[in-house]
């Protein structure tokens, strides 16, 4: 039967069976040029953040810095083809990096070929587990993440990330942890070590970001600048911050004269094709940490994805997210990487920078690949305080006091779940906090239904 609506749009690619497995394929095939400025700008900003972040997280996992870069190329290309959300930015993250170190250190020494081989095998196991969970429709677990739990997680995690970034913002060194009270305690202990020059760079970066985000847009509209040009101009604030910060450090040699922390040398080279171990004994030894990373990575990613999707009234398919994360981890395993998942700070920046489709992630991956081949010297003098400022301004937008008040006025049980999740994430960490919040919300729901009297016949 002819479809008259399809005939009216001859250039549109009709969906087919492949779209069931590649849900974002239709969006990419029917790509709108209007989405390109936002996708391109988001890709550039995320790529600039991703290069130093992935190296730092790789070192945290006990791996060479280039392994983090390798994990930031193919997974970023695979995920948007399969994922159900537009703006989740996958790659190395702190939580998973710590879990990798904890699990692999028991089996091999850092810096050895065995350690790297175990990390690759761990990525493959995580990929297999998540892919299997998605194909067997275990994504229903996402239903236990209520809106109140997501809100509590998002706002507490935003505070944790902001506090974490203050160490680079202030130029001090503190131990790595995701517990808010420990971070705060360490910061207070080391306040006297604050680097004044670094702090000035950070404050100046925040000033530029706030000006672009809050005041420049109003001025451009007052000057009757086109909406497209206004959008592009206001989104380049992170690029301006990075350019000016790098130029300042390079020109005044602040890394030498004022001990300003910089990104430093980034090893060049594309990832090799790698083959993880298929030793059943190693699989058995790695299975507990692989299961932990699989569940923690999924829950963290889905919470971030649902939180960001709520701003655009989009739906997130838990099963499809498991498939996408699983394939992304398999991609990391065969290209010299280690386990990846959705990252909160990069996803927020990706969203805030105007990403409209998964093409932003693909472009970011290509930019990372191009960077490790040709552009690594350009990032040598990039001050870490500028990156910290970008993240702090981005995550601050997630703290929504009005939403908390609305939930409190609407449902006290949901408000209790939000509060428990919020406090748990701050107290025991992000992944455990999500579990505590989910269990609390489920318990309160079951308790509430027990006290509801069903109508008689």
Task: Summarize the topology.
Elements: H1 4-8, H2 18-21, H3 25-29, H4 36-60, H5 65-70, H6 74-82, E1 90-91, H7 94-104, H8 113-135, H9 147-170, H10 180-189, H11 196-222, H12 227-235, H13 237-252, H14 254-257, H15 280-309, H16 318-333, E2 341-342, H17 344-352, H18 359-375, H19 384-396, H20 401-410, H21 412-428, H22 430-450
Antiparallel strand pairs: 1-2
Helix pairs in contact: 4-12, 4-17, 4-18, 6-16, 6-18, 7-15, 8-15, 8-16, 9-10, 9-15, 9-19, 9-21, 9-22, 11-12, 11-13, 11-19, 15-17, 15-22, 17-19, 20-21, 21-22
Any overview of this molecule?
The protein has 457 residues and is mainly alpha-helical. It folds into 2 domains: 35-396, no CATH class; 402-450, no CATH class. It has helices spanning 4-8, 18-21, 25-29, 36-60, 65-70, 74-82, 94-104, 113-135, 147-170, 180-189, 196-222, 227-235, 237-252, 254-257, 280-309, 318-333, 344-352, 359-375, 384-396, 401-410, 412-428, 430-450; strands at residues 90-91, 341-342. It has a two-stranded antiparallel sheet with strand order 1-2. Residues 1-16 have low confidence and may be disordered.
The neighbouring-strand order within the major sheet is 1-2
Approximately how much helix is present in the residues? 55-70%
Supply the number of structural domains. Answer: 2
What's the story with the biggest beta sheet?
A: 2 strands, antiparallel
On the 0 to 100 scale, the average pLDDT is 81
Describe the global form: globular
Number of strands: 2
Instruction: Note poorly predicted spans.
Output: 1-16
Radius of gyration computed on alpha carbons: 22 Å
Element-level helix/strand string: HHHHHHEHHHHHHHHHHEHHHHHH
By DSSP (H or I, 4+ residues per run), the number of helices equals 22
What structural class should be given to the helix and strand makeup? mainly alpha
> What is the CA–CA distance across the termini?
48 Å
> Strand fraction band?
under 5%
């Amino acid at each position: 039967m002819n479809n008259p609506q399809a005939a009216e749009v001859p250039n549109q690619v009709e969906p087919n069976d492949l779209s069931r497995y590649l849900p974002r394929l239709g969006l990419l095939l029917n790509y709108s040029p209007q989405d390109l400025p936002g996708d391109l700008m988001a890709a550039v900003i995320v790529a600039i953040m991703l290069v130093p972040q992935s190296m730092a997280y790789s070192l945290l996992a006990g791996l060479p810095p280039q392994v983090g870069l390798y994990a930031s190329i193919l997974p970023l290309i695979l995920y948007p083809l399969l994922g159900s959300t537009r703006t989740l930015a996958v790659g190395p993250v702190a939580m998973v990096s710590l879990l990798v170190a904890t699990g692999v250190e028991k089996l091999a020494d850092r810096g050895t070929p065995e350690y790297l081989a175990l990390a690759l095998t761990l990525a493959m196991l995580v990929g297999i587990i998540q892919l299997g969970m998605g194909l067997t429709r275990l994504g229903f677990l996402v239903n236990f993440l209520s809106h109140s739990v997501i809100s509590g997680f998002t706002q507490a995690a935003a505070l944790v990330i902001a506090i974490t970034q203050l160490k680079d913002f202030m130029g001090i060194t503190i131990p790595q942890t995701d517990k808010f009270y420990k971070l705060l305690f360490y910061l207070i202990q080391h306040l006297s070590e604050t680097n004044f020059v670094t702090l000035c760079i950070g404050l100046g970066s925040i000033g530029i970001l706030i000006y672009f985000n809050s005041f420049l847009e109003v001025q451009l509209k007052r000057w009757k600048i086109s909406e497209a040009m206004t959008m592009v101009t206001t989104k380049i604030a992170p690029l301006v911050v990075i350019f000016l910060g790098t130029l300042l450090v390079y020109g005044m040699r602040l890394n030498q004269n004022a001990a300003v922390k910089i990104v430093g040398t980034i090893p060049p080279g594309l990832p090799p094709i790698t083959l993880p171990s298929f030793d059943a004994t190693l699989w058995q030894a790695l299975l507990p940490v692989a299961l932990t990373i699989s569940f923690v990575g999924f829950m963290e990613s889905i919470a971030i994805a649902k939180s960001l999707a709520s701003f655009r009234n989009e739906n997130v398919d838990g099963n499809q997210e498991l498939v996408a994360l699983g394939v992304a981890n398999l991609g990391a395993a065969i290209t010299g990487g280690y386990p990846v998942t959705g990252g909160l700070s990069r996803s927020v920046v990706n969203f805030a920078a105007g990403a409209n489709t998964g093409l932003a992630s693909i472009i970011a991956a290509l930019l990372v690949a191009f960077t490790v081949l040709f552009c690594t010297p350009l990032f040598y003098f990039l001050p870490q305080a500028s990156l910290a400022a970008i993240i702090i301004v981005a995550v601050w937008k997630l703290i929504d006091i009005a939403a908390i008040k609305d939930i409190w006025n609407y449902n006290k049980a949901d408000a209790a779940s939000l509060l428990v999740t919020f406090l748990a994430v701050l107290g025991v960490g992000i992944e455990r906090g999500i579990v505590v919040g989910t269990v609390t919300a489920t318990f309160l729901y079951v308790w509430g239904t027990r006290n509801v009297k069903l109508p008689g016949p």
